[in-house]
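User: Run a structure prediction on this.
Assistant: Running it now.
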Amino acid sequence: MPEVLKSPDQNEFLRLLSKSLQGGTQMLNNLPSSYFAPPAIRPFVSNESNNWLGNTFVKPTQTLAEDASYGMPLYSGKGMTFRPDPRFLDAAGIIPSLKPIGSIANIAGKTVAKELARQVETNTGLLGKYTIDPRAYIHLPNTPLNPNELVGTRFDRESIGGLANKKKINLEDYRGASIVPMPYDLSSRNYKITNVSDVQLPNEIITHGGQDYARDIKHINEGVIGASNAGIADRIKTRADIAKQENLAKGGTGQVLLMPTTMGAGSENFSVQPTQVFLGLLDVSKPSKAAIKELDNSIRTFKEATGVGEQRRIIQPYKNFSGVMTEEGRNQLLTGQNIEGTAGNLRKAFADRMAMKQNQEKFKYNIEDVIASIQDPSLRGVPKGYAGNTVLSVNPEGMKLIPTNKPTYNTDFTGKFEGSLGYNAPLEILMMDRYNDIAKTFHGKKSDLRNMTIGALEKRKSGISSMVDDAMLERMYQYQLDQKKKGLL
């Protein structure tokens, strides 16, 4: 690790300036001139005339510092008209165009923070030897009324390959088969994540879930198309078996197509992938004992509903959670040992607490960056209850269940990866007949009709398949035409 400067003036100067450039404009009002005095930054300038940071960050800042030391103003205006001295923006290599500080500072902050982090991480450049770690100051404010365009984009990942081509198929070639929906989370597979919210993670994370599980070349060779816990895998097999019987009874071909459907926001939190990212962020941010104690207690007191009807009750299943910074606690997040709930639900509770606004600010990250880093790029922005991105089939001899020791689930199930329709369609279009039949049974209920109908399609054992026939093919054809007219395909 690089040596941390012992001078509080130098450390505070970098901390406040970095935070200001990342959107904390109010900090500019509170920067004492002592933080800009030449002695506070002189160690950063010597023998670095050709360095990127020396030329575009330190030199402009030094002239700014000299003016500040003589009491000259560093900004003008207030509120939305607030503008810093142009040299603040020059320090990040950006020329202002009379925009409000909020939008410019976000861009400037990303440029500066990335370069600072790179020099710290590689122990090179101007800050390689003498700096604080700027990665501890990188939460970006983001609200519906004042969205930050950088939030949801700050992550570094790359594909590591190992996936078969996503060949496009024609649904008409499967006329007479039956479609069974199967919920999948939105996570990706075979992406290596190294940085989230401009924080270099201590360990790279390889995504391993989602619809591309079936597209993994290793799984194709093994005849595996998906994974779940044993109970759910058994239900998937039963649904496929019943769908085949129903299909043959209607004069179909007996072929069953499993169509992964998109789940809602946060569905990936059951898997270990978000937990791995959160733990990496905590390890790097080095939070205080008080902050960790508060986080741990919020997980231990997390409440869940169990049972239905008269048996419904509220429980606190994680009272025995050992804590996120302990070896025992991290093992519980993987195994569920010594807790009342499952490991997956404990991970969901952990993710829920980490996503709270105060914890995003406290641990210096944005939840949108975490979600985007894990998510399958083909499914980004696709709403709940859509299918078509992936098409799988059940083998003629039926589905087999195979015990496994994968990170999230313990049972693989067999089948064949067919390909992709090349677009996603809502279940109410794809399976209109079955969707409408089930929706009628929920009329008058107070909950969301679409969510209840999709839930039934995804969970019930029988009466949840639709045959590929002329009516379905015509609906899908018209849906594609409509989407193309709207510029969505």
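DSSP finds 18 helices and 17 strands in the chain.
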